[in-house]
Amino acid sequence: MMNKIIPGKGNMYEFITHTWNPMRGECIHKCPYCSTHKLANIYPMIAKKYSGPPELDKSVNDDLGCHKVIFVCGQSDLFAESARIDSNDSVPGELIERVLEQCNKYPNNKYFFQTKNPFRLLSYIGLLPMNSKVCTTIESDRYYEKFSGDTHSPFERMLAMEKIIFDKYVTIEPLMDFDLMPMIEIIKRCNPIQVNIGADSGKNSLPEPDSEKIEQLIIELQKFTIIHKKSNLKRLL
């Protein structure tokens, strides 16, 4: 079942109707708060699938059907590559191309791609299905080296998102402490249709903002985009 296209509402975006995870292997970003790591500690099948180098499994040949909104590689990051100059770790380009090829065989679907490396997604922008939606995660305007994993900074992610012409979304989860005006500017320049905000639900001892700052952020973001507050945000509000 884990290797198939799975029906179900998205946890962050309610328009998601299905998830599809044709890529196995450990995510190169290695974000310490990643939900996949926590699931792997509970379910041996997930631990087995999301370990080792990135590679395709047999579900890459799945019939994706039609009239679906599919979250592609939601348990990992299809466009991941190391942000360290001393590392060449990355999802192989031929793997990315094969996944996008399969998506394009089913053009009557819409596809949702979320990545912490939108610059690399730009390299494949011509291969994305026409009905694609692109999302990036921006937990803060600050770069917390201890908690950010092997990723580029939020500012760098924003620079790439500015260049993407598909429908765009931003996920602020887990929300970490931020500087109000720089955070607003980064999100605004991404030009998202919708921003989803959620708190850490994994007890990762992250630096978190107070309720007043969060409320002010929401007020300002609502001036130019739709805000969806995840239920776990109530802990901070």
Descriptors:
single chain, 237 residues, alpha/beta, eight-stranded mixed sheet, two-stranded antiparallel sheet, 7 helices, 16% strand, globular
Describe, in plain words, how this protein is organized in 3D:
This protein is an alpha/beta fold and 237 residues long. It has 7 helices and 10 strands. The chain has helices spanning 35-40, 44-49, 93-104, 118-123, 154-161, 180-190, 211-221; strands at 6-7, 18-20, 23-24, 55-56, 69-72, 110-115, 132-137, 167-172, 194-197, 226-229. The strands form 2 sheets. Strands 1-2-5-6-7-8-9-10 form an 8-stranded mixed beta sheet, with helices on one face. The chain has a two-stranded antiparallel sheet with strand order 3-4. The mean pLDDT is 92.
Our Rg estimate from Cα atoms comes to 17 Å
Largest sheet composition: 8 strands, mixed
Q: Tell the overall outline.
A: globular
- The proportion of residues forming helix, as a percent range, comes to 25-40%
Average pLDDT reading:
92
Task: Tally the helices.
Answer: 7
Provide the β-strand percentage band: 15-25%
Could you tell me how far the N terminus lies from the C terminus, measured between alpha carbons in angstroms? 37 Å
Structural class: alpha/beta
Order of helices and strands: EEEHHEEHEHEHEHEHE
